[in-house]
Amino acid sequence: MKNIKFLLIGVIFGIILSKSEAVSWYRIYEMFKFQSFHMYGIIGSAVAISALFMYFFKNGKIKDYLGNQINIKEKKKGFIRTLVGGTIFGLGWALAGACPAPIFVLIGQGILPLLIVLLGALLGAFIYGLLSDKLPN
Fold first, then answer.
1. Which of 14, 36, 103, 123 is spaced 20 to 30 Å from 21 by Cα?
2. Residue 45 DSSP label
3. How confident is the model at residue 48, as a pLDDT?
């Protein structure tokens, strides 16, 4: 019961994704064809809000739920790793018709073929967990 707040945040996030049409295959299709600003506006807003939160995390103004300061590790910079990771993510997004965030929202809306996408995402996370020590991340 102490983790119910995380479930509620997830439900609210799912409602926002659904109501903003960020889970709509047609909106994603429009984005990839540069026919609409809708998804770019949502993604741009998310990037701006994330940058603001990162600023507050790094300055110690926001703490975790236990009151501890959040320490952000610097990632190694690299063009190839970004290109390869972005390509894999983009191909998965294009093949599934959805990025990972709305998988549960779409399943909740009754789009059951997304169960295959969920299985693939879980399998990919499992394989990454097995190989993470050997990867250059």
1. 123
2. H
3. 97
SS3 83: helix
Tokens of 31: 């984005």
8 Å CB contact between 84 and 97: no
Distances (CA, A) of 34 to 21, 40, 100: 16, 9, 21
User: What are φ and ψ of residue 123, in 5° steps?
Assistant: -65, -45
Where on the phi/psi map is residue 72: left (φ > 0), alpha (ψ -120 to 50), or beta? beta
Residues β-bridged to residue 63: 69
Closest CA to 111 of 91, 122, 97, 132: 97
C-alpha 56/C-alpha 135 separation (Å) is 30
Q: Report if pTM > 0.70.
A: no
DSSP 98: S
Q: How far is 62 from 51, CA to CA, in rounded Å?
A: 13
Query: What amino acid is encoded at 14 in this protein?
Result: G
Q: Give the dihedral of Cα atoms 95, 98, 99, 104; nearest 10 deg.
A: -130
pLDDT tens per residue, range 28-65: 888 888 998 888 998 899 999 999 998 988 887 888 77
